[in-house]
């Protein structure tokens, strides 16, 4: 709270500073942005690689859920026919699960249209000649409305939250089918409208990366909606569902299940309370709305990041009591989670608020919680020839991706709270390491092209990527 400053103190100065610099060579900057933004780069192994991901990832989701559900986390042979028969039965699509999933998505969409929230300007869009789009940030009000309504419907018995964990397999199928359907509908609609951007010409690659850059229905930006309103909220409710079930079965909430509630609450709450920072992030500026983002957010995140919760739930049923760890181990897990969260939250907000100040779109908000050092008072930075300013203060002067390290600390804590009986609860941290390393490589290449010698200077001043002195 103490470091949360107002626009008059810093934003106007930094905004003028950046724009007085930009005005010198405005045209040149747009050309660099447009070049980087329109360049086609084959990622993820190109067309073959992305086709394998589109087929392989859903299969992997079924495999891991099947191992957890039917074999309590033991990795069975993927060629075991009986295993796949069990999975087919346990995850068959049902009307009930489809109704739950679709109603939830439509309800969140309804809130996105109707709840109050500030409108912030996004980063200048290169393919729109630097135009800044408006983003309605009603994530916090929608999140609180969801919490209140879910409490009411559960209490009144209209919908029992533990049904989510009981219906998990069927719900996952509803999400997977929705992920594919939305991908195809958005792709076809974009092509019919002639609204495609940065197309490679290969159907499978374009379906994976997406065709449209800024998908919108009226005032709602679908990409921003999909990034936070579905995946993290659903993930949180899967943990809530398991926790209620634990309470109903054993009469108390274990520290391990309490940990998962806290972990998922912190993540979803951070996304909502800092939503106004999202329009200037890489996904919003650069990534298109294809299978990668759509499937990942509608099905991948909620139904794979929850393995620790599922394991704790199944273990408690098997053992007749919730999984208990020693006090030191439990304290270690909580400490790792909260330390990671603090660094992650403040590092993201330092950079995003700095960027928003530069764009003239920073709006101080009092969403809960505002952490100390979340906004830098007089940050150091590099003025690039491109026009953008690169932050060298705060966490961004300590390591170039300290927020990724912090995110990984949280991810490993999610695994550690389940102990070491199964490898599946380490799927998320291990997968996340791979995702982030790949993301770092893509991002550093892109920044190097965009900022040239200034990026080299930034790397000289901040030589470490993840952990100072190590890597
Ligand atoms: P970053 O927040 O690192 O954004 C990278 C962009 O920030 C760069 O392309 C550049 O954009 C700009 N930038 C880089 N360095 C600086 C600097 N020193 N000063 C100012 N701007 C800079 O990455 P992400 O968008 O990937 O991640 C955001 C958060 O989301 C992270 O905390 C990450 O852990 C999390 N995340 C979580 C995932 C999950 O599944 N749980 C998946 C992916 C991300 P520009 O071109 O504008 O200069």
From TrEMBL:
It is found in: Endoplasmic reticulum membrane. It is an enzyme of class 1 (oxidoreductase). Its EC number is 1.3.1.71. Pathway: Steroid metabolism; ergosterol biosynthesis. The keyword Lipid metabolism applies. It catalyses: ergosterol + NADP(+) = ergosta-5,7,22,24(28)-tetraen-3beta-ol + NADPH + H(+). InterPro entries: ERG24_DHCR-like (IPR001171), Sterol_reductase_CS (IPR018083). The keyword Oxidoreductase applies. Its main location: endoplasmic reticulum. It is a multi-pass membrane protein. Keywords: Endoplasmic reticulum, Lipid biosynthesis, Lipid metabolism, Membrane, NADP, Oxidoreductase, Steroid biosynthesis, Steroid metabolism, Sterol biosynthesis, Sterol metabolism, Transmembrane, Transmembrane helix. One of its GO terms (biological process) is ergosterol biosynthetic process. GO terms for cellular component: endoplasmic reticulum membrane. It comes from the Eukaryota. The chain crosses the membrane at residues 48-71, 135-153, 173-192, 226-244, 250-268, 289-314, 326-344, 411-437. GO terms for molecular function: Delta24(24-1) sterol reductase activity. PANTHER family: DELTA(14)-STEROL REDUCTASE, DELTA(24(24(1)))-STEROL REDUCTASE ERG4. Belongs to the ERG4/ERG24 family. This is Delta(24(24(1)))-sterol reductase. It comes from Ambispora leptoticha.
């Amino acid at each position: 709270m103490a470091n949360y400053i107002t626009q008059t103190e810093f934003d106007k100065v930094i905004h003028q500073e950046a724009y007085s610099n930009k005005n010198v060579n405005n045209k040149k900057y747009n050309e660099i942005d447009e070049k980087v933004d329109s360049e086609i780069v084959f990622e993820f192994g190109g067309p073959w690689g992305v086709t394998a991901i589109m087929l392989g990832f859903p299969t992997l989701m079924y495999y891991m859920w099947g191992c957890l559900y039917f074999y309590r986390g033991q990795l069975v042979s993927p060629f075991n026919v009986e295993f796949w028969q069990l999975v087919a039965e346990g995850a068959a699509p049902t009307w009930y699960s489809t109704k739950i999933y679709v109603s939830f998505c439509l309800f969140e969409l309804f809130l996105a249209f109707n709840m109050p929230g500030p409108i912030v300007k996004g980063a200048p869009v290169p393919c729109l000649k630097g135009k800044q789009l408006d983003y309605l940030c009603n994530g916090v009000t929608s999140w609180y409305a969801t919490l209140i309504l879910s409490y009411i419907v559960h209490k009144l018995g209209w919908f029992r939250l533990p049904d989510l964990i009981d219906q998990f397999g069927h719900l996952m199928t509803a999400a997977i089918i929705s992920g594919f359907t939305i991908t195809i509908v958005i792709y076809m609609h974009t092509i019919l409208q002639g609204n495609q951007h940065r197309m490679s010409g290969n159907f499978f690659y374009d379906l994976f990366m997406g065709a449209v850059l800024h998908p919108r229905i009226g005032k709602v930006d679908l990409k921003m909606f999909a990034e936070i309103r579905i995946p993290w909220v659903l993930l949180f409710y899967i943990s809530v569902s398991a926790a209620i079930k634990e309470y109903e079965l054993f009469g108390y909430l274990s520290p391990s299940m309490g940990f998962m509630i806290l972990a998922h609450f912190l993540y979803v709450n951070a996304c909502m309370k800092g939503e106004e920072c999202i329009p200037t992030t890489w996904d919003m500026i650069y990534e298109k709305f294809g299978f990668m983002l759509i499937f990942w957010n509608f099905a991948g995140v909620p139904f794979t990041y929850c393995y620790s919760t599922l394991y704790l739930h199944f273990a408690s049923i098997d053992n007749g009591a919730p999984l208990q760890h020693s006090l030191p181990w439990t304290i270690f897990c909580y400490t790792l989670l909260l330390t990671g969260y603090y660094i992650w939250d403040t590092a993201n907000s330092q950079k995003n608020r700095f960027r928003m100040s530069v764009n003239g779109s920073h709006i101080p908000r009092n969403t809960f919680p505002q952490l100390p050092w979340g906004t830098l008072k007089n940050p150091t930075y590099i003025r690039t020839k491109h026009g953008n300013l690169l932050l060298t203060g705060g966490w961004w002067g300590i390591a170039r991706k300290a927020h990724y390290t912090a995110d990984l600390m949280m991810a490993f804590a999610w695994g550690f709270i389940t102990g070491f009986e199964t490898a599946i609860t380490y799927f998320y941290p291990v997968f996340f390491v791979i995702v982030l390393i790949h993301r770092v490589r893509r991002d550093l290449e892109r920044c190097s092209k965009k900022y040239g010698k200034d990026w080299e200077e930034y790397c000289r001043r901040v030589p470490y990527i993840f952990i100072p002195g190590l890597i």
